[in-house]
C-alpha cells in the first residue's frame, strides 16, 4: 500500500525469525471480529497490523466473524464490518464464519474426551467459580472429573441433542486444578445455550467457549500468527494446550500486543452500543463516535486512519494515545488534497457604502495555495457581504488587528476596507456595519505600500448559499476504566453545536463525502446523512491548528 511503512515492531521480528528458522513457510493472519457491534478505531489498529504484516511478507489475511456467541450477534453488524474493512483499504483472502466450524469443533471435543482430556461437569456456575480457587489458593477438583470416557461421550451427546437445560452441564478440559494460571484450572470448553444463531439457526444448543474455539478456528484456516490483544496473554498456555491436545495439522501461534486506548474515548462495543441505544448519538455512524463508520461520516480519510494506526506503533505495554493525534494525520492528508473556500459561520452583514449599488465583480482566488494544479475559482463580490462576527470588535483590546471602527483590514483576495459606522437595533445589538473600500487595493494588494495587519474572509450576500454546519467537541469528557455504565456520566452535553453558515456559491455542487478547507475554520466534510436535495450539511472534521505536536 502507498503509505506502508516498515519501521520495526516486535511482531515483525517474531515473524522474520519464524520464517528464517523454517517454523512457518508463509504468513497467514486473520482479523476476527465478533459481529456484535460496529468496528471502532481500536479494531482499525488490529486491521492495519494484521493486513499490513501479511502484505509485507507476501502472505494473506482472512476476515473471520467470530460468531460463537448466539445471542448478541446480528447481520447488520456483519455487513457493516465488511464495508468498514474495505473502506479502510483492505481486501481479505478468505471470508469465514467461526460458526461454520461447529461440526469440526464438536469432533475435536470428542477427541479430547476420548483422550481423557475433557469431561462433562454438573457443577453450577457458582460452584465452578468456588472450586476454581484464587491467585493464592489452588482450585479443588470437581466431583465429576473422573467420569468414564463412555459416560462423558454419552452425556456430551445428550448435551448436543438438547436433553439438558441451559447451565445444567458443561464440558470442561481436564488440565490442572492447582495450576498457578487460573485459565488452566479445567476451563469450560462448551456450554448449553438454547438460542437461535444468526448463521446456524437452531441446529446447535451447545456453543464452544472462546478459548476453545479460537485456536481451532486459527488451525482450521492455517493461520500462522494469531495476533490478539494483551488481555489474552494469560490465556496463551491454554491456546497452546488446545492446539497440542487436539493434534491439529496446522500449529498457529498466538502473539499479544497492547490494545489502543485514546483520551476522551470509550472503545468497547458494549459501551458504544449503549450510547446508540440511549440516543446520546444519532447512530453507530454519528460523527462523534470512534467507530469507523463515525470517523468516515465525520470526514476522516482511510489514509489518515492507516497512518495513525502505524505511527502509534505496536507495543507490549498498555498506554493511552492522545485523540488529537488522529486530527494531526487528517490535517497532514487534507492539507494537500482539500480545496479552500470561504465560509462565514456566525454572520455579520457589512455594506460597502462607496461601492456602486448595481455593480458586482468576481475575484480569482486560488483553490489551494500549496498546489497550483488545483486551479483558481471566481468568487463574486458586491456591495453587501457577510463577515464573521468575531472579526469585528467595537472596542477592541490592544493587538486586535481585525476590523474595528476606523481600522483598515484586507478582505481576502478582494479589497482593503475600513469600518465607518456601526448600526445597532433599539436594544443596542449590532445589526450591520457600514464600511468604505479603497478601489485601488483591488485583489487585496496595497496600492501605495501601506500595510494592513489583518486579513479576514467574507461571502457575498446576494450569491451566498446557506448550509448547516456542525461543530464537534469530544463526546466523552473523562474516560473511566470502569466496567459499568458510569461512563455515561461523562458524556459531554455540549459535544455538538449546529450553526447556519453562508458559503460561496460554488459550494452548491458539493457532494456527500467531499472535503474542503474552510478558510480559518478547519477541514469540513459534506455530511452524507443530513445533506439532501436542497440542503447542505457539513461536519467539521478538525480545526486548522492545535497545540498538539507530534514528536
Ligand atoms: P470490544 O471490547 O470493543 O468489543 P473486542 O476485543 O471484544 O472489542 P472483537 O470483535 O473480539 O472485539 O475484536 C476483533 C479484533 O480486534 C480482536 O483481535 C481484538 O483483539 C482487536 N481489537 C479490539 N479492540 C482493540 C483495540 N482497542 N486495540 C487494538 N485491537 C483491538
Ligand atoms: Mg468482545
From TrEMBL:
Q: Per the UniProt entry, what is one GO biological process? A: glutaminyl-tRNA aminoacylation
Q: Where is the Glutamyl/glutaminyl-tRNA synthetase class Ib anti-codon binding domain?
A: 338-438
Q: Cite the entry's keywords alphabetically.
A: Aminoacyl-tRNA synthetase, ATP-binding, Cytoplasm, Ligase, Nucleotide-binding, Protein biosynthesis
The listed location of motif 'HIGH' region is 33-43
Sequence motif 'KMSKS' region, residues: 266-270
Would you name any one GO CC term? cytosol
InterPro entries, alphabetically?
aa-tRNA-synth_I_CS, Gln-tRNA-synth, Gln/Glu-tRNA_Ligase, Gln_tRNA_ligase_bac, Glu/Gln-tRNA-synth, Glu/Gln-tRNA-synth_Ib_cat-dom, Glu/Gln-tRNA-synth_Ib_codon-bd, Rbsml_bL25/Gln-tRNA_synth_N
- Localization in the cell: Cytoplasm
One of the record's GO molecular function terms: ATP binding
| Sequence ranges assigned to domain tRNA synthetases class I (E and Q) anti-codon binding in this UniProt record | 455-527
Question: Where does this chain mainly localize?
Answer: cytoplasm
Q: Which PANTHER family match?
A: GLUTAMATE--TRNA LIGASE, GLUTAMINE-TRNA LIGASE
Q: Relate the assembly described in the record.
A: Monomer.
Similarity field: Belongs to the class-I aminoacyl-tRNA synthetase family.
Q: Would you tell me the protein name for this molecule?
A: Glutamine--tRNA ligase
Tell me the lineage of the source organism.
Answer: Bacteria, Bacillati, Bacillota, Clostridia, Eubacteriales
